[in-house]
Amino acid sequence: MSTTTQPEGAGQESAIAESEPNAPEAQPAAETQDTTPLTESTRTQTEAQEELIREGEIAADFLEALLDIADLSGDLEVDVEGNRAAVAIVDSEDGVAPRRLVGPGGQVLDALQELTRLAVQAETGDRSRLMLDVAGYRSDRRAALVNAARAAIAEVKQSGERRELEPMTAFERKVVHDEVLAAGLHSESEGAEPSRYVVIQPSA
Questions:
Q1: In the structure, how many helices (H) and strands (E) does the chain have?
Q2: Which residue, of 34, 55, 112, 167, is most buried by count of CB atoms within 10 Å of its CB?
Q3: Phi-psi bin for 160: left (phi > 0), alpha (psi -120 to 50), beta?
Q4: Whole-angstrom distance, CA of residue 199 vs CA of residue 186
Q5: What's 37's DSSP letter?
């Protein structure tokens, strides 16, 4: 079992100019190295990125131990997507990622994600918004949701009437909301869990 993370940056080279013996003293060469200090915004973004990577690594350690205890196959990939840590259990050389960790409608995956977030919070002291995927379930589901959202958006634009979609998880609703916003329409969630759904409204 292995864990994959993104590589860090590389170093810089500098040159030193030397003067000829008995020659007039040369003027110091202008330095080419950028000594501009990092802005507060840049430092904040860098620190936030490092914290998300650490979240992912903590989650990967927790999940790796869980897979070992359950004697399940799978490698772990750690990444950062937007402002969230992202961890995926993928196929390994020893076998395929355990689809049983997805469950009907992704219910087991959602529960495992919440458990993993709690494990991260116990280590860092901060609430985690980490996203977990198993066997590409969320990425496949995202693609299907985008297609369904675009079809519903086209229908709303043509009819001028609101459109109610099927009940979805919080992750699924977020995908739809993002797609509706990009199309210039308005959407909102209605109903109570686990039957909460998205309503797409025509533009004003």
A1: 4, 7
A2: 55
A3: left
A4: 9
A5: P
Give the long-range contacts of residues 78-81, CB within 8 A, separation 24 or more: 78/3, 78/4, 78/5, 78/6, 78/53, 79/5, 79/6, 80/6, 80/49, 80/52, 80/53, 80/56, 81/131
d(CA 198, CA 146): 13
Alpha carbons 62 and 132: distance in angstroms, whole number: 12
Q: State which H helix or E strand residue 133 sits in.
A: strand 131-134
9-31 per-residue burial string, b: 16 or more CB within 10 A, e: under 16: eeeeeeeeeeeeeeeeeeeeeee
**What distance in Å separates the CA atoms of residue 174 and residue 105, rounded to the nearest whole number?**
16
Q: Could you tell me the pTM of the whole model?
A: 0.71
